[in-house]
Write a structure and sequence with these properties.
Number of strands: 0
Distance between the termini: 75 Å
Strand content: under 5%
């Protein structure tokens, strides 16, 4: 009796797992799923570009500081405002 219950539970779990996987695969291949994937890809590309831009600005500032002798970002005392690499939105 215990063996039958065990196999019944295992079969039910496998069926639920396969059903969920099939539903997700069907959604990914539908038009709304493809739109969601393209949107997520665009968001990832924008985030990657922002990270690269931030890193480039930081490295450029570091190189300029080495060449021109400008103060480093981390050398400013805490009570003084730090230099910002972001552009003014106005």
């Amino acid at each position: 009796m215990t063996g039958r219950v065990l196999w019944f539970v295992a079969g039910t779990a496998a069926g639920v797992y396969a059903s969920v996987k099939a539903r997700r695969a069907a959604y990914r291949m539908s038009m709304p799923g493809l739109v969601d994937q393209a949107s997520a890809l665009g968001t990832g590309v924008r985030a990657f570009n922002a990270e690269m831009r931030e890193g480039m600005h930081a490295k450029e500032y570091q190189l300029r500081a080495e060449v021109l002798g400008a103060p480093q970002l981390d050398s400013a005392p805490l009570d003084q405002p730090r230099l910002s690499l972001e552009k003014d939105p106005t």
